[in-house]
Amino acid sequence: MATKVERAGAQEWVPAGADVGRLREAAVDCRGCELWEPATQVVFSAGSPTARLALVGEQPGDQEDRRGIPFVGPAGRLLQRAVEEAGVDRADVYVTNAVKHFRFTQKAPGQRRIHASPDVGHVSACRPWLAAELAAVDPDVVVCLGATAAKALLPKDFRVTKDRGQVLRLQTSRGEKTFLGTIHPSAVLRVPEDDRQGAYDGLVADLRTAVAALG
Ligand code: URA
Ligand code: SF4
């Protein structure tokens, strides 16, 4: 029999009207789902709290979990390169994840931790943090990197493969905003080497579209 996991969701840990600094402090205590327990620490955001461009990833990876900073591993390095190539300084960008704790599987303690994608319940449990961040930062353009971030923020029928790179106007608590979904940088890393440059160029092209939407 399938066991139903009860998840309170992050809402009760999210201080109302808080700036990014206060949200970051409060997130340390979050018990909105079970992912906090095996993880090393919560991984909140990085970058400018007044950025006009926000990038939303999936969840911290192994290195992010150890260091407490998003996008510092291989996918993060690729993303940084792509962002710079698209004409933005990473310092002008706010970077965060749909889910703030690393979900992984592990055969035995001390063994390699294998990334496990968060399920839709984790995404919805963690969404109050993302909503509060976007309300505090109030970016003009939000880029969803991969299907998990798209699930958190974009319409239900959005599909990365067919809808990526499209400029969407969506209602938020801070009025109408521009959103765009694209592939996740780790998807680029999974493409066989012969085709990887094309996948990378596609990510850069989508980021350029987002930059152009900044006006
Ligand atoms: N992948 C993500 O989606 N986020 C990170 O912070 C690192 C890797
Ligand atoms: Fe809270 Fe999100 Fe961590 Fe779950 S993943 S405990 S909702 S911060």
TrEMBL record:
InterPro entries given in the database record: UDG_Type-4/5, Ura-DNA_glyco_family4, Uracil-DNA_glycosylase-like, Uracil-DNA_glycosylase-like_sf
Entry-linked SMART domains: UDG, UreE_C
Domain Uracil-DNA glycosylase-like intervals: 44-208
Keyword field: 4Fe-4S, DNA damage, DNA repair, Hydrolase, Iron, Iron-sulfur, Metal-binding
Pfam families the record matches: UDG (PF03167)
CDD domains per the UniProt record, alphabetical: UDG-F4_TTUDGA_SPO1dp_like
Protein family per UniProt: Belongs to the uracil-DNA glycosylase (UDG) superfamily. Type 4 (UDGa) family.
Name assigned to this protein: Type-4 uracil-DNA glycosylase
